[in-house]
Amino acid sequence: MAKIETPRPIRGTQDIIGPDAEAFAHVVETFERVRKLYRFRRIEMPVFERTEVFARSIGETTDIVSKEMYSFEDRGGESLTLRPEFTAGIARAYLTDGWQQYAPLKVATHGPLFRYERPQKGRYRQFHQIDAEIIGAAEPQADVELLALGDQVLKELGIADVTIHLNTLGDAASRDAWRAALLDHFRAVKGDLSEESQERLEKNPLRILDSKDARDKVYVADAPKIDDFLSDEAGRFFADVTSGLDAAGVKWVRAPGLVRGLDYYRHTAFEFIPDEGSASANALGSQSTVLGGGRYDGLMDSLGGAPTPAVGWAAGIERLAMLVGEGHADLQPHVAVIPVGEDALTVAQSVLAEIRSYGIEAETSFRGNLKKRMQRANASGAAFAVILGSDELASGLATVRNLSNGEEYKTPIRTLDVDLHTLVAVHKFNRGSQPDPLADALEGTQVKMTKDGLVISLLGNAPLHSDDQ
């Protein structure tokens, strides 16, 4: 019989497990925690939309629409597209689902996106992003709020070596005047521009400012600057954004070359970029932007809606996970419960339930002798092992072993959950892990493991034995 061939993974996709998966989850969990602090509503969006949603919002002439979208016809002959980004779908929902009633609306989401592009480090054909938007707020304070959210997400992830690169695109009148000046400037040297920039010239001259081609850079350097065309209102808007960032303690630098090519972008454009020579810059290589976005006050018009101010950003989860790496190292210590013998299995299940009810991560081994189960507990990175054998069941005292130093002590099975909660809290505090109310309360606490039980000295108070709890 012929061997059945195993299907191969699709190029540009990834199967994630182990530390990479933990780093991925850590990014999402941190984003969820911080967006709640800022009162951004959680939303869920379809992974596919009618193709026109992206063609009209992103622009039919862009590389995303013309080359990178995964589009297909369904059985009814309708053209559908797997979402290449979040904003267009969120804008469609705002118009079709009556979300205007919530304006100004602060929303956040995360999930998979799809683009057919060349896979490389930190870039995939199915990738994932976190995304935040404020819709229906024309005030510059909305931009500050959104930028502060992004800044705090990165800081909470431990990614501190980045700076916001910030620019203004002005209002519609400012942008139109700037565009006309750019057309005149680049038309005069059209023959010297790269082929790609010559093609872009009449369609969207702002995109030439993004060119990495050496033939274009000399002309980009002395191209007209947006500051020469800003209206008084647009100038005040940008000044309010920058002063708000200063007040919020958010680090930024001016980036006059930072643009957004699509006509619906207005005012603020920004990218969070690793500082030169930093660990993040070295880790990402050429994929330097960590988080990016801007104000898109003209987008709703392109989808048939009323003019609606909006600002948003997105960040690649895979890219952030690369920067987080294994450094966050599963910050929550866990406990391995090791039953020895048939009689201990039921007790172990009860102990596991009690430990988990305290919010402590715990697991057990289902096979092997004591030695092998202890080896698995050590390999898993457990902080403590709880051994339940015949002696422990007979005495009612569990054996708890600190796997970092080998110390052991006995504690009543009936109070095991309380003792472990205290032990884990102290362990977390000593490791400088995530904030924990009990760990914070135990600053200065010393824990001793003795054959008589757990002895805790609380800030010089009398010792507390586990038997007394």
Automatic annotation (TrEMBL):
<dbReference type="InterPro" id="IPR041715">
    <property type="entry name" value="HisRS-like_core"/>
</dbReference>
<dbReference type="GO" id="GO:0005524">
    <property type="term" value="F:ATP binding"/>
</dbReference>
<keyword id="KW-0963">Cytoplasm</keyword>
<keyword id="KW-0547">Nucleotide-binding</keyword>
<feature type="binding site">
    <location>
        <position position="133"/>
    </location>
    <ligand>
        <name>L-histidine</name>
    </ligand>
</feature>
<dbReference type="InterPro" id="IPR006195">
    <property type="entry name" value="aa-tRNA-synth_II"/>
</dbReference>
<dbReference type="GO" id="GO:0004821">
    <property type="term" value="F:histidine-tRNA ligase activity"/>
</dbReference>
<dbReference type="Pfam" id="PF13393">
    <property type="entry name" value="tRNA-synt_His"/>
</dbReference>
<feature type="binding site">
    <location>
        <begin position="85"/>
        <end position="87"/>
    </location>
    <ligand>
        <name>L-histidine</name>
    </ligand>
</feature>
<feature type="domain" description="Aminoacyl-transfer RNA synthetases class-II family profile">
    <location>
        <begin position="27"/>
        <end position="333"/>
    </location>
</feature>
<dbReference type="InterPro" id="IPR015807">
    <property type="entry name" value="His-tRNA-ligase"/>
</dbReference>
<keyword id="KW-0648">Protein biosynthesis</keyword>
<protein>
    <recommendedName>
        <fullName>Histidine--tRNA ligase</fullName>
        <ecNumber>6.1.1.21</ecNumber>
    </recommendedName>
</protein>
<dbReference type="InterPro" id="IPR004516">
    <property type="entry name" value="HisRS/HisZ"/>
</dbReference>
<feature type="binding site">
    <location>
        <begin position="264"/>
        <end position="265"/>
    </location>
    <ligand>
        <name>L-histidine</name>
    </ligand>
</feature>
<comment type="similarity">
    <text>Belongs to the class-II aminoacyl-tRNA synthetase family.</text>
</comment>
<keyword id="KW-0030">Aminoacyl-tRNA synthetase</keyword>
<dbReference type="GO" id="GO:0006427">
    <property type="term" value="P:histidyl-tRNA aminoacylation"/>
</dbReference>
<dbReference type="GO" id="GO:0005737">
    <property type="term" value="C:cytoplasm"/>
</dbReference>
<comment type="subunit">
    <text>Homodimer.</text>
</comment>
<feature type="binding site">
    <location>
        <position position="260"/>
    </location>
    <ligand>
        <name>L-histidine</name>
    </ligand>
</feature>
<feature type="binding site">
    <location>
        <position position="129"/>
    </location>
    <ligand>
        <name>L-histidine</name>
    </ligand>
</feature>
<dbReference type="InterPro" id="IPR004154">
    <property type="entry name" value="Anticodon-bd"/>
</dbReference>
<dbReference type="InterPro" id="IPR036621">
    <property type="entry name" value="Anticodon-bd_dom_sf"/>
</dbReference>
<dbReference type="InterPro" id="IPR045864">
    <property type="entry name" value="aa-tRNA-synth_II/BPL/LPL"/>
</dbReference>
<keyword id="KW-0436">Ligase</keyword>
<dbReference type="Pfam" id="PF03129">
    <property type="entry name" value="HGTP_anticodon"/>
</dbReference>
<keyword id="KW-0067">ATP-binding</keyword>
<feature type="binding site">
    <location>
        <position position="115"/>
    </location>
    <ligand>
        <name>L-histidine</name>
    </ligand>
</feature>
